[in-house]
Amino acid sequence: MVAVMVTLSQWGSTWCQRWPPGTKVGDAVPPLCRPQDALQVTGTFKQCKTQLVQEGFDPGAIGDRLFVRDAARRSYVPLSRAAFRDIQQGRLPL
């Protein structure tokens, strides 16, 4: 997952909403995207990733919006609880 610092009002015009032309599935396109207004950093400006890892990507457990890569649409779509269940059960591959 990638956590990007962007407001939700900016989301539609960012690189993460639509894939660049010529991008193929399997290229370095993150399977999950979690836009945030601000990233937590340490005193030496390193990202605090431990909490993100602990929270995972369960849409019912975290407050941020999550988006999952949709290869058919070549864009990111909101991650629903049903899609999260499908990922957990192996019916929806990342």
UniProtKB/TrEMBL annotation:
Keyword Transcription: no
UniProt GO cellular component terms: endoplasmic reticulum membrane; plasma membrane
GO BP annotations listed: long-chain fatty acid import into cell
Taxonomic superkingdom: Eukaryota
Family: Belongs to the ATP-dependent AMP-binding enzyme family.
Organism in which the protein naturally occurs: Junco hyemalis
GO MF annotation, one: long-chain fatty acid transmembrane transporter activity
Residues in the signal sequence: 1-16
Listed name of the protein: S27A2 synthetase
Keywords assigned: Ligase, Signal
